[in-house]
Amino acid sequence: MIISVIRTIILYIIIIIAVRIMGKRQISDLQTSELVVTLLLSDVASIPMQNTAQPLLSGFIPMIILVMCEIVISILMMKHTGFRKLICGKPQIVICNGKLDQKQMKRLRMSNEDLMEQLRQLDVFSLSEVEYAIIETNGKMSLMKKPEKNPPSAQVLDIAVPDDEFEVVVISDGDFAPYSAKLCDINKQWVDNTLQENSLLQGDVFLMTVNRQKEYNIILKEN
Known about the structure:
The chain has three domains: 2-86, no CATH class; 92-149, CRO Repressor; 168-220, CRO Repressor, CATH 3.30.240.20. It is an alpha+beta fold. It starts with a helix and ends with a strand. It is flat. Helix content is 48%, strand content 16%. α1 (2-22) runs antiparallel to α2 (32-50), α1 runs parallel beside α3 and α3 crosses α4.
């Protein structure tokens, strides 16, 4: 029993390392080759976990080979467009100049319900709003609305708007994040001084965010 637990933990760590080497993506963003390798990794890892008589190395070596194959394929896809099209396919236009391409939908085996669902996920609730809709190689839809359906921009209205400021987390559950602080050109001393001005300790803070204008928000831990 103990051996099975140890083998499972080791294989779990190996799989995490393998997935990190391949790159961090959401499941919905995986290309065909990445999805195949991910499925095979889980299948290969399950064999030595279920059969303790089988050497652990017999599962480890195939995983290394799969990861290496994925890395090689990724490099080839970056360097050769034709090879990428062969493995991943190419984007397909399903709405062109506001007109639905029924033949393309049949080739993609996409139903009307599938089309409308993807449009709604992009906050589009009427086909009349769409100028172009493209199914990308990862299966997600990109679209361009008709010009008259787009809300007017500040440039069109000739309105001056302030620059958007992004916030970064500098304290998370009492822990200081130095990398995030660098993005806003601040350091630990600035954070400590700010907390001191508010009569707070770092351990009291659940979340602290800062932007490049040194504007901050602090949320305290709940007792």
